[in-house]
Amino acid sequence: xxxxxxxxxxxxxxxxxxxxxxxxxxxxxxxxxxxxxxxxxxxxxxxxxxxxxxxxxxxxxxxxxxxxxxxxxxxxxxxxxxxxxxxxxxxxxxxxxxxxxxxxxxxxxxxxxxxxxxxxxxxxxxxxxxxxxxxxxxxxxxxxxxxxxxxxxxxxxxxxxxxxxxxxxxxxxxxxxxxxxxxxxxxxxxxxxxxxxxxxxxxxxxxxxxxxxxxxxxxxxxxxxxxxxxxxxxxxxxxxxxxxxxxxxxxxxxxxxxxxxxxxxxxxxxxxxxxxxxxxxxxxxxxxxxxxxxxxxxxxxxxxxxxxxxxxxxxxxxxxxxxxxxxxxxxxxxxxxxxxxxxx
Length: 344
Description:
Number of strands: 0
Number of helices: 13
Largest sheet: none
């Protein structure tokens, strides 16, 4: 019985200890489980944070990689457009073709082109051309009738009283110098050429007051010898048309002579001078009324409005009298008035 009594409490104590141990183990396991769960949660949170950080870094990197592209696009959009390439310079062949076409079209516009000095002989043309320096052909044509009525031959003019000649040609300007020239050439014709005007360039240019321009006017219109007359109108237009860049009359004559056949030289001169006097003026060309604008590299230097340009046209092109008192047959304009008819 004592033995039984002793065993009972021990077993109870043992059971109690086992229960406590089990409870302790359970608590430990619970703690471990809680710790594990907590640790796992923290790990997941850290992993999530790391993922977010990586995403943020990726976004930043992506934005950074896109930034230069956007910057380049903006730079490209802001860059100015490249200027157009300059036009290819006109070749010599193209210029010659254009020049000859201008001549052909001017021949259609001015089929009546002619020397605008009145004359009945080579002598009258020679004297009139010398007098035309620094004045208009109109003024010369209004002056020479009285001069030739009094001095019809070289011999007559060479023997004249200078003061009387000066008074007759006063309206042409520079009358003293011109009197010296025409009386001198008249004496040379009388003494060296039998009272006749020579038909050679080398002889004409030896006469007082006679240069290449005057000589070619006489040769081309009194003797039928082809020549290029480089006057102020001719010089201006051939430079505007880019036939030459020279300002020297002799060089211009030589350069233009290489563009056209010799048979065209005299009429080419008349057409160009007609166009310069009527349409392509020095100060204000009538570009808007010009028939060859499609061939002119200088179009736009003058008035381009058609209505305004038409008001700039002169002589028959503007419905006005021409320069000759005795124009040739076929001239469509009115004759010029004689000296004093308009109060001049």
